[in-house]
Amino acid sequence: MLIDFGSAVALATFALLSFWPPTERAHVFNLPVGGGLILAGFLRSSATSVPAAAQNHIMLGLLVLMLAILPSRSNLPPRRWRELLART
């Protein structure tokens, strides 16, 4: 499906851009991609049944939303802690 390929390309592009220091916050652009996946999942479902592809879109959209709000350097301690440790 076209939304799967388009979402994958957008996610990979924004993730790679977030490694480059001038665009380190590009991962935030994954929020609309995650919202679009959730919306696509709800549009594919009906009132009586939810097909597996729709469930997959909804769950992946929620996962993308959760990961998109993480800061680029989430593996490091907060900046203030690093400054404090650098002084000692």
Which features would summarize this protein structure in a list?
mainly alpha; 88 residues; single chain; elongated
- Runs in which pLDDT lies below 50 for 5 or more consecutive residues are none
Structural class: mainly alpha
Q: How many structural domains does the protein architecture include?
A: 1
What gap, in angstroms, lies between the N and C termini?
55 Å
Radius of gyration: 17 Å
Helix content: 55-70%
Counting DSSP E segments of at least 2 residues, the number of strands comes to 0
Walk me through what this model shows.
By secondary structure, the chain is mainly alpha-helical. The protein has one domain (2-87). The protein has helices at 2-17, 30-44, 52-68, 79-87.
What is the structure about, briefly put?
By secondary structure, this protein is an all-alpha fold.
List the helices and strands and how they pair.
Layout: H1 2-17, H2 30-44, H3 52-68, H4 79-87
